[in-house]
Amino acid sequence: MAKHKAALLTAGGLAPCLSSAVGGLIGRYSDVAPDVELIAYRSGYQGVLLGDSISITQDMRDKAHLLHRHGGSPIGNSRVKLTNVADCVKRGLVKEGQNPLRVAAEQLTRDGVTILHTIGGDDTNTTAADLAAYLGANGYTLTVVGLPKTVDNDIVPIKQSLGAWTAAEVGAHFFDNVSNEQSAAPKTLVVHEVMGRHSGWLTAATAKAYVEKTRHNEYVEGLMMNSHLKNIDAVYLPEIGFDFQEEGERLRKIMEKNSFVTIFVSEGAGLDAIVAEREASGEQIKRDAFGHVKIDTINVGNWFSKNLGNLIGAERAMVQKSGYYARSAPANGDDLRLIQGMVDLAVESALNRVSGVTGHDEDKAGKLRTIEFERIAGGKHFDPAVRWFGEIMDGIGQPWASN
């Protein structure tokens, strides 16, 4: 049997698992197949197209365990879609007339890569599927095994994506400090905008983690630092509907009583309506290589702050975004255990020439397996009917219904 050579790449946005997943893969290969040569492509698929790679040395192998302590990606990310030819040409990654899939395939062949590990979300792994399909159709022998990372936890049919648990915990820690801003001025509205384009899972999970973190706080009774100050007064997700005017009336009463209001907002909540509103006014909305609205240009939190602030009589309104802080954190204990299981299976699958994405398959009773690429998709919605979310909303006292 020919000797294997494995390449690693991370792509898309950051998540609190990339560094650990890279370290885990290096460590696992060193343990079970130390003769497999390892390289990493710098900045995701950009590195593949440009032939820009890092050789994993023995010293790197020996110190790979240190990567579990860090956030970010030790090999760099980028957002490159190999089937978006125009974007790849525009960015100077391929020349006019070249097929990025072919360029990538030929680079992998020149590098002698037989195994490719992609660590990313649905875009990263569906791009890997496109590459695997192209390679198969053109006689290239390559096993592609992805690991599912996204703080949104929205990959079909994967039960839990890497990094999402950590992002919720760190987002709650972030807001535990921010919530004290309520004491800075009367009639303050604080909007906590949380990442989540299509799915409200991270917003809901961050709210849950925040409630659990602050539930047992002790206060000096009679002063203004009390449990009301740490309350969440509303949660808005893409998956739940609400009457804006009724919410304004409800929150105005809270503002009159407590002199502050706190809301958690998913960055995808009301996104379609806000985009339609802007496009109707003649604004050209920016989109990325995958056709997604560049969500950081929409500023959903600011829209809620402005429009809701006026309704509830806020004299001071502020938007705080935990996204970049949360997604750049090192993986927590729960994610480290999840990463280890998926890494072990990824290496096993790669050595057995089984392509796909490792994860707990919701269509197979939650079994950890290497899921077929054709079944991988993005945009999985959060299910607001789960018990723990209902308990959060009951505690808040916010009327809501599933969209």
Fold and architecture overview:
This protein has a seven-stranded mixed beta sheet with strand order 3-2-1-4-5-11-12, sandwiched between helices. By secondary structure, it is α/β, with parallel strands linked by helices. It has helices at 18-32, 45-50, 58-62, 85-90, 100-110, 122-137, 164-178, 201-214, 244-258, 271-280, 300-312, 323-327, 333-351, 387-396; strands spanning 5-10, 37-41, 53-55, 115-120, 143-148, 188-194, 234-236, 240-241, 260-266, 316-321, 356-361, 367-371, 401-402.
Cα(first) to Cα(last) distance is 54 Å
User: What percentage of the residues does DSSP assign to strands (E)?
Assistant: 15-25%
Could you give a short account of the major beta sheet?
7 strands, mixed
Low-confidence stretches: none
Whole-number radius of gyration? 23 Å
Question: What is the residue-averaged pLDDT?
Answer: 93
Shape: elongated
Side by side, the strands of the main sheet go: 3-2-1-4-5-11-12
Determine the structural class based on helices, strands and strand pairing: alpha/beta
Helix amount, in percent?
25-40%
* SSE string: EHEHEHHHEHEHEHEEHEHHEHHEEHE
Helical run tally: 14
Number of E-type strands: 13
